[in-house]
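[[Sequence with tokens]]
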Amino acid sequence: RQIPKENYERTLLNALAAGEGPDIFMIHNPWLPKQIGKIIPMPSTLFNAADLIQLFPTVVEQDFVGSDRRVYALPIYLDTLALFYNRELFDQAAIVRPPATWDEFQSLIPRLRSLNAANQIERAGAAIGGSIATIDNAVDVLTLLMLQNGTTMVNVDGAQATFADATGLAALNFYVQFGNAGSPYYTWNDRQTNHVDSFAAGKAAMMVDYQDTIAELKDKAPFLNFGVAPMLQVTGGGSAINQPNYWGLTVSKRSESPEEAWGFILHATTDEKTVRNSVVAFGRPPALRSQIEAAVADPNLSVFAAQALTARSWYQVDEEEIEEAFSDAITRVVTGQTPSERALREVEDFVSVLMRDAVVE
């Protein structure tokens, strides 16, 4: 039985609570803090954190190795955000190459957007500046901007959120300017259609999304002439930082054969031939380091595969709650209900409460 992605977590938790869950299930990369109590970690004699560090990109350690240094999940593929751009609209605007930095991206917005006499958007320069109501990955883009800006999202012991500082505020202000009708870079609002639909229809010249959106785009607009470029980085920011999105296989605490289950996962995620076959079958960028180099040579995977090595994550005690809080802050700032500094501070306070409550539980 296929479960819709949006219902997966609820369906899984209900099954586990009823004692009917599977031995092996999948968790999204930020879920470990929330779901760790339902997982039995990998036996250290079978595979440990040092092994994981050798075989997988750094972000997998960040996401799937617990504070006890035990391994709680392993991925088959690893997706990252990238820049999608409409080649025909770029040609019409005499733009010869996609932007590489956020500054370049910002400078292209006035050249690519189309506003009518009433300042209404006829074509967006990019799908950015809105909430998750119209941009599915809005919060991923915002928090990536924070990480690229050098924001420390939480303190070292994972007990308090710390992103409402000058760097976090600069990232929020940069993001919301694209949704502010009074900004020279205004290009989006939540009255637009979903960002993928807008891009597919030629109503947005750029968008930021994951590799798994390519198939959806080709289905919606088979003749759309679009390109994919590496994710935008901060000018002079030093090392690249990219946003991951992937799932890991893990073992239920209720499993009667946990070692056998983990043995299956280990084979599925670290055996090179098995992983290679999976990558070909599913058309996804691999997570296994030894397979990334080959994927970089694949034109359909190259951008995403290369970025896996510079993907970085941060501790989220409840991904869904945090996404809603950031999205609401974006809306309140863009609509003028709340100053950006106060909105960001309120999100930080909310996330800190979530983290304290999780410790109490």
